[in-house]
Each structure stands twice: as structure tokens, then as C-alpha cells.
Amino acid sequence: MNRSLPIRWGLVVATLASLALIVALRRHEPSMDEKTAPMLIRGATGQTLEARNFSVKVGKLKLAHAYRLDPRTSDGPAREVKADGIWLSALAEVTVTQANGYVGAQLRARDGRVYRAAPADRPDLKGFNLADLYLVTGLPANGAYVFDVPIDALEGATLQFFSGNGAPAQLDHLADVDVGLDAAHVKTLLDAAVPMLDLRSPERAP
Amino acid sequence: MLLAATLAAAIVALSGGFRRADATGGTMPVSGAGVPITSEAFIVTPLCAWSADQRPGQLASKEGEPRYLILRAKVESRSRDWLAMRAYLDKDVVWLPQGHGDPVLAERSQRADDATLRFDLGPGLPVLVDFIWELPSGMAPPATSTWGMFKRRFVERSHASGESMWLQDGPGWKFTLPVSQDCAGGDA
Fold it and tell me: What CATH number was assigned to the domain covering residues A38-198?
């Protein structure tokens, strides 16, 4: 008995079209990074930005090529901490609003390069470097975030703030602050940048 | 991400790590001091190596403490982001005590200028890094030593999770340096 099944061309075409559609949709679906990306909220220097668990207000910026810091021991020499690029410090006031913890920061260059704020170990500014400062709910902290960045990353960069002192959490707020780093502002800051900024405590500075 | 990293580590282990080149029929470039090695993730320029009774920045060694082997290198990240690049670097630069075979991860790495342990590798910012290994007890400091560097590649969308990630991609390069008692000129 020789019975051949008829080829149902309509079904074959529909199957192939469905497969092609599935492949095309898979290729164009948002990546996991895009689906779980932090949610940007935007602001500018001098504004208080309210995120899920913190608020932040950024103030004055300053550049320096190196910092002079207090010695590690009482009779030791002052330490000089050089930047690999240039130090950018940003005065800020941060408050955690729901739970005690940290507020981290990073600088995002216009071309997408991202630099995390320097940890409290370097430069160690004893409570002034906000990057690793444990914050208590409702109590504002004033200090600075410090970034070691290449000079060519400054123009057009924004500062970004997030909960925690690791990396920005997925699906949480990322506060993006326009600090006005246009060409003219960068030039002004570079002209004012000192080779060595003295950040020793007042009793140790001459 | 953890699954992919474990899988990558297993593949490297199964491939025999930094096997003798003639055993695999392949050739692995062997360079020396001052020659930049460029992976997709890093540019690493080995500068010098030395052995010492204490780690750089350590105030004093105590009696009976081990000797250390230190490799100083200039490191630059080629990633767009600081995230995790430091941890990847510590997995990619390895010591090959026999000049081939199983790689040994550094006990620690630290900045060469002030021995800071906690630092990031920002995109395009060269940093001088000291990689430190504790010499096995009874092992005399070698006159020369060999290190290796793994390849690493960026995957935009991994099959496992759909997330982007940097994957270690097998042994890539070897370099041999004399091991001296100090590192004069190694801060360039």
C-alpha cells in the first residue's frame, strides 16, 4: 500500500513565516540589561532630587591634580595622593529617607564611560568623603564625592547617585544630575585647578 | 551570571590551563618587560618583578613570615564601565610557577603608589598595580619567572540570562621577567 500524504503548502508557509517572526521578535526584544535598567530621574546643580530612598543636592565643583592629606600617624609626614587622571570633587548634601545605608555616586561621561566615586580609602577624608559614609535616616550629611577621571571625560559629564555603595541597583532610581560641565565651565575649572590641594585638617595645615 | 562564570572556569580547567605550548601543538606568544599585552578587556604592561620579605606598604615583616613574589604592571581597562573590572583583572593575570600548567591567582593586588587595596579601574585610566603572591614554603625566589594572562571577551546578551557580561575566554599570553630584589625604574 503506497499512500503519500499530501503536502499542505499553506501550512508549510505559515510555519516558516511564524518561525521567521519569532526569530525577528527575539532579536528585537529589549535585552535583560534594558529591561532591568535603573530608572533615571533628572535634576541639576542646586536642585534637591528625591529618589526612592534618598535625596541629594549637588553644589560646587573643583578640580585638582593631587591632594595633600593628614599623615596616617601623629608624627608621620603629610601624604600626597595623586590622581591617575584628575580629581573632580563635588560638594553635596545627601539624606537617606527610608532606611539607613549608603548613597553611592558615579560620573557618566558624554560618550558613556562611567567612573565610580573614589572610595573612602583614597582619598581618606574622615567623614567628608560621602562615598562610604553610613547615613542615618532623616539626618542630612554634607561632604563631597570625589572622582578620578581623565580630563577628556569632563565635558558633558553628569553625576549619578544611587542607593548603596556598590553599583546602581536594577529597577531602582538613578538620580542623574546635570552639573553644567559645558566647555566654558570645564575650562574655568581647569584654569583654577591647583597641582596640590591641601585637604589637611585645620590643626595640621600650616 | 554565576552559572556562566562557573561554566567558563570549568572550560578553562578542562582545557588544561596554560599547558606547554608543544603539548597542544599551538603557540602562545611569550613577551617580556615593557611589552603591552592587549585583551578585549585590558591593556597590561608588565614592568618588573621582585621578591621581598614583606608586601609593598607593609610596615615590617615578622620572623617566620613568608617571602613574596611581586609583579608590577601598568594596567588600563578597555571597558566602558568600572563595574567588576578590578575583579576580572585579578582573575586574568596569573603566575605560572612552572612556566606552564596550572595558573596561580595573586594573593592580592594593590596600587603601586600607596598600597591601597580598594580601587577601581576606570575606563582608559592607566594605574600601576602590584600583584602579590606568597611563595610556597621552601621555594627559593626564582631568578626569572613566568606569568600568564587570560583572554576576556564581552558578550552583549548571554544565552543563559540575557544579560551582558565579560567572559574569560581561555589562556592568551605568557610573559617572562627577571626577578630582582627591587624594582628600580618600575614606576614609569
Answer: 2.60.40.1240
Element containing residue A184 per DSSP (H, E): helix A183-192
Domain with B108 in it: what CATH number? 2.60.40
Cβ proximity of A56 and A93 under 8 Å: yes
The domain in which residue B95 lies consists of 2-56+65-180
Size of interface A-B (CB pairs under 8 A): 63
CB B17 within 8 A of CB B102: yes
Nearest chain B residue to A37 by CA distance is B163
What's the number of CA atoms in the CB half-sphere (13 Å) around residue B179? 21
Model pLDDT for residues A18-59, shown as the tens digit of each residue: 999 999 988 888 888 888 889 999 999 999 999 999 999 999
* pTM confidence score: 0.87
Q: How far apart are CA A110 and CA A51, in angstroms?
A: 23
The domain limits of chain A are: 38-198
Query: Does B172 fall in a domain?
Result: yes
Q: Concatenate the DSSP letters of all residues of A42-92 into one string.
A: EEETTPEEE-SSEEEEEEEEEEEEEEEE--SSTTSPPEEEEEEEEEEEEEE
- Residues of chain A in contact with residue B118, where contact means CB-CB under 8 angstroms, are 119, 121-122
In a domain, B79, yes or no: yes
